[in-house]
Every structure is written in C-alpha cells, then in structure tokens.
Design brief:
9-stranded mixed sheet, globular, 15 strands, alpha/beta, Rossmann fold, single chain, Ferritin, two-stranded antiparallel sheet
C-alpha cells in the first residue's frame, strides 16, 4: 500500500489561509454561498484519508511489515475501502469529480454507523460547473498540507474549521443565520447555563454544531473531563448540508461519540423514548425565527404533549419550538437558553401562551441583546433562560437584563467582547437590580401587565443616560457627527457654487 506524497505541516494561521485559498479556487464557477458544500466534505475526506495512511504505517511498523494486520479494521478509526483513498483520487486526470463522488459514497457505506450521508449531496460529477482541471487544482491544493495526527492535532484543525465556517458566514451574510450563530453569543449562553461533565446537552436546531462545541469548550476550560460528554451530545438539523457540516465539525474537534440527526424537529423529533420525548440536562438553541410553513394542525394534537402552552399562529412557530424545548428538559436539572426575536415577549397573538408560560414559573431570565449581532437580521434578539426547578431565591421572579448597549461594532457587524459577556454573566448570577441595566420582577407584576415580557417595560434607562443619548449614541458623539456632516455639506455646496460660477 503506497503512502501519501510529501506534504507540509502548518500552524493555525497558515492552515486557515490555506483553507480559504482552497475556497478561492472555486470562485467563479461556484457561488460563494455554495463554497461550504464543496470545501467541507473535501477537507474531511483529506483528513480521514491522511489519518488512515498514518494508522496503516504505524500498524505496519508494529507488526514488522504484516500487511494483513495493518489493514485490520481494529487499527483504524474509520474504514476506507480499496481504491478510495485521497491518493487514489489524486492520481486521476479525467473524471475527477466522479472519482471523488465514488470514494465518498464508498467510505459512507463502509462506516454506516458513523459516516452515513456525511459528505452530503454535492454534485461533484457536474462538469459544466466543476471541470477536471479545476478539481485537479483543488485536489493538488489540499495535497500540499498533511492532515495526519502527527502533523496537526484536533484542536488546531477544529479551530481552522470554525474559522472557515465564520468566513463562509461572512461571505453569505443574510443566509448565514441558517447555519451560524456568532460565537460570542454562544459563549454567553453557555456560560449562563454552565454545563458540567457527564450532563446531556441538546440543540434541537443545531446548525453547524457551534453551541454543542461551545458547551464542550466550557467544560474543558472549567477543568472537566470532556470525554465524559461523549455519548451525551445530541442535535437535530433540518438542512442536509448543514447537518453534515455539524457532524464533520464534531469529528474534526476530536469528538467521537455524538448523535446529530437530520430532520424536522417540530414534525419528527429525533430523540424519544416511546411516546415521550427524551429529556436533557442542558438545551441550547437558536431556532429559525417565525417560520411560516409548518404543520399547525398536527401540533394541535401533538402526541408528545409539546403543545402544553397552546397552538401558535400559523405564521409564527416560535412558541412551538419553545414548547418542544421545555418538554425536552429533565424535571430537576433541566435548563435552557434560547435565542428568539423580541416579538415572542409581547406579541398579542401569543399572549395566552405567554401567560401560561409565566404561570409555570420556569423563566429565569429575559436578556436583551444589541443590534447587528446576527447575520440573518439587523434586528435585536433576546435570550430566554428557563429552568425546570428554580432555586428558592428565584422562584416567582424573573430577571430582566437590558444589554442592548453591551456590544462592540466593526463595520456592519457587532459582537460581544469578553467584558460584555462577564458583565452580563455577573448580573445573571447575582440576580439583583442594577439601575438602568437589570431588574428582578415578580410574577404578580408581570401578570398585571398581561404577561408582557418586553424588557423596556421593566428596565428603564437611568435618567442621566436617557438625557445624554440620542438614537442610541451619547449626545457629544451625535453633536460631533452633526458638526462634521455640516462642515462637509458646506464644503460641497461651496464647490458646487464655484463650479456654477465658472464661465462656459
């Protein structure tokens, strides 16, 4: 069995640049929004092939050259059938796309319990879009870097993969919200829920698995044993390509045992025990906002009892996801953090469901975030934190936090810095009033407002802040911008008048 040709080991920065350049090879024939459907499967194919070759060489050395021993399934994490390795594809000069597609399908069939459909349905054999020359260039580009374990560890490869997800999100902009939640927001949500080693963690609309990975990183940073999360990570994702990306993401981060299932969470929840939903310790979610097309009729008689709050209006499925998540929490340890549009807090058509939710006394915190944090919308979002068994001090109360100004803005995008995250987290943990920023509100007061959970209703800006702000900016800054604008306008008018006065 021949080994891979000479390649180069790289550091994180070089690997990120190399991967992004691979995407640029596709630019032109492939739209930027489709880069991920080609680059991610190819990257994973290269990784598992390089690792297979490495395992083969190690086994061959250990056995004194016993080829049969080196090919034993027990010596390999994943099985790669004969003729389906990276070097087999690299040797092709014609019908390269067909060779890639065949290798990927054979690998999936050889690993049905782990890699089923992981490479997605990318049309590799479409020569009108992907010529042999383009694919040879792409394969050769990937071949320049070794992705074997001896040359690159899971942490580096995982970080590079996350970088690529972020870059593709930047490129696709509005479409990115379908598969990417900004990592600073994920970090905030994970810190609030504080998952522990050994707990079950679930994301019903998992996208590229960023929230599951955020939970893993949190446990790791806290000194926990990440391996105790293996077999306890669950996710469901409706989109085929995105669900494949999620699985690749976890594998490339070194996570070997998890359950990511493709499917519609509302119509066909993937995790159940008979007629009951499986329940989890921690749930993190960024459901699609206010989806229009969903089976409201089926929901009204849901066999899992997820409609305990009622049946949402057809054009807004937010409370259907809410009901699903609450039904998926363990009775004593269950807790969730869900990203929602602010409308779920006050829309009239959901008032009865909201009132039932308030009466369950599961809402622990309603947190308002600043604008432009998300690719799919410039609007402000909120995080609703719930717990099935609140501590005595938090019962019959909800903490409202108005963190709309806790953002840093760069170009058209905003993000949370660590100081913002820590300020919000400390406020959540202390659960006390902070003038102009947070307030603990009794359920009785909320009921007098007809279960309206709108944050400005309960957290009002400090008087001096309100007096010193205009359009969300400090007045001195507004005045400075107005003066600069006025000066520029006067200069433009002077130039225009001077031009008009010139003889023709």
């Amino acid at each position: 069995m021949a080994t891979s040709a000479s390649t180069t080991a790289v550091d994180l920065g070089a690997l990120e640049s190399h991967l992004w350049e691979a995407a640029n090879i596709l630019r032109g024939p492939v739209d930027a929004s489709d880069f991920k459907t080609f680059i991610f499967p190819l990257l994973f194919f290269k990784r598992i092939s390089d690792v297979y070759d490495e395992e083969y060489e190690q086994s061959l050395k250990e056995s004194g050259g016993d080829v049969a021993y080196a090919q034993f399934a027990e010596n390999h994490r994943f099985q790669i059938p004969e003729g389906c390795r990276w070097q087999d594809v690299r040797s092709k000069t014609t019908n390269v796309g067909q060779a890639i597609q065949r290798s990927m399908r054979e690998i999936e069939m050889a690993n049905p319990n782990t890699l089923y459909s992981i490479f997605g349905d990318t049309p590799w054999s479409n020569k009108d879009r992907l010529s042999d020359a383009l694919l040879r260039d792409l394969v050769e580009h990937f071949s320049c870097v070794s992705l074997a374990n001896r040359d690159i560890d899971d942490d580096i490869l995982g970080q590079a993969y996350e970088y690529l997800i972020k870059k593709f999100a930047d490129q696709t902009n509005r479409k990115a919200g379908e598969f990417y939640t900004p990592r600073s927001v994920v970090r905030l949500m994970v810190n609030i829920l504080d998952p522990k080693e050994g707990e079950t963690i679930y994301d019903p609309t998992c996208g590229t698995a960023g929230m599951l990975l955020g939970a893993i990183q949190h446990v790791k940073e806290a000194g926990g044993n990440v391996r105790k999360l293996w077999g306890k990570l669950y996710g469901q994702e409706k989109n085929l390509t995105t669900s494949a990306i999620a699985r690749i993401n976890l594998f490339l981060h070194g996570i070997e045992d998890f359950k990511i299932v493709r499917g519609d969470t509302l119509s066909a929840p993937a995790f159940s025990d008979g007629d009951r939903l499986r329940q989890f310790d921690v749930c993190l979610a960024n459901p699609p906002y206010s989806i229009k097309q969903w089976d409201r009729t089926a929901w009204s008689s849901d066999r899992f009892g997820r409609n305990s709050l009622g049946t949402p209006p057809q054009g807004r499925a937010d409370y259907a996801f809410f009901g699903h998540i609450l039904a998926s929490l363990k009775p004593k340890t269950g807790r969730c953090a869900i990203l929602f549009p602010h409308g779920v807090l006050f829309r009239d058509e959901e008032q009865e469901m909201r009132a039932k939710l308030v009466d369950t006394d599961q809402i622990e915190c309603v947190l308002g975030l600043g604008p432009n944090l998300f690719y799919n919308s410039p609007m402000e979002a909120c995080v609703v934190v719930c717990r099935t068994a609140k501590t005595k001090a938090r019962r019959n109360r909800i903490l409202f936090i108005n963190a709309v100004n806790e953002v840093t803005r760069e170009r058209a995008q905003s993000f949370l810095e660590e100081e913002h995250i820590q300020k919000i987290l400390k406020t959540y943990q202390q659960c006390e009033d902070v003038e102009g920023f947070a307030r603990v509100v009794t359920l009785d007061e909320i009921r007098t407002n007809k279960a309206n959970l709108s944050i400005p209703l309960y957290v009002r800006p400090k008087a001096d802040d309100a007096a010193g702000m205009a359009n969300g900016k400090p007045l001195p800054k507004v005045i400075e911008e107005w003066q600069a604008s006025s000066k520029a306008l006067r200069s433009s008018m002077d130039a225009l008048l001077a031009a008009l006065e010139q003889p023709r």
